[in-house]
Amino acid sequence: MQSNVIAVLFALASALTIAWGTVIRHRIAEEAPGDGTTIRSAPIIAVISRPLWWAGTFAALAGYALQIAALGFGTLLVVQPVLVLSLMFTFPMSAVYDGRRISKAETFWSLVLTVAVAVLVILGKPSPGLLEPPLNRWLPALAVGGLLLLLIDRLAYTRVRRQKALLLGMVTGGVMGYVAVLSKAFVDIFVHQGFVGILTSWESYALLAGAVLGTAVQQSSFNAGALRQSLPAMTVTEPIFAFVLGYAVLGEKFAVSGLSWTWMALALVAMVVSTFALSRRGVG
């Protein structure tokens, strides 16, 4: 059943849940970074040994489950912009955690982000795409995007701390963009073929691998630097990858023409600018 209203509600719940999990896992990374001199003191071991990190991780998984539910009711081009609002939820939670007040600038950019997302979803009127995209639509997208993200990942490990966090944030966003598209394919397969379909489809296993990889890279980006350096990159890169893949692989489209494309472009620019502005001001 297609219902963009229900999809948006599930996506908002997902964004809120993901935001809480993000704040928790980053704070744990800051408090227990590890020095890397031994296996037990390695950053990833230091954080996963904390029970609160697991609480944050399970929150992220719950948020992902809500995202899956949203994709069951609406298109990727509806759900993905709404998920960007997770940033708007993230830094007020971070502010509460730090015991500080939210500034007027943060409130302003939050409103800009909300309006931009509303324009993309309401004016865009995304239309559904292919239920089962053929493999020849997947292969070029997987090859080109995978190579690009691998190059950025390798480049990240030759850079200083701040640049490394930014680049790993971009890789995280790209991987999660693939996860979003595979999630939509997974939902469509389940709806039309049931459990047998998801057990016998390559998309299910690619989705699992992508989710694990994305979580690992995300934690590495958290450990590499402050959240304001990695979060904007992953928050903006994910919908960009998802939009491109939604068009190229799933065949979803925005139902706009003429002057409406100008408003859509302005909304996308506003979403990117407000995302960076918020993350620079609101998160440590």
Automatic annotation (TrEMBL):
Keyword Cell membrane appears in the UniProt entry:
no
What are the transmembrane regions? 61-87, 108-126, 138-156, 165-183, 195-217, 229-249, 261-279
Write the record's keywords in alphabetical order, separated by commas: Membrane, Transmembrane, Transmembrane helix
* Keyword set includes rRNA-binding: no
- PANTHER family (alphabetical): CONSERVED INTEGRAL MEMBRANE ALANINE VALINE AND LEUCINE RICH PROTEIN-RELATED
Write down what this protein is called: DMT family transporter
Organism of provenance: Corynebacterium pygosceleis
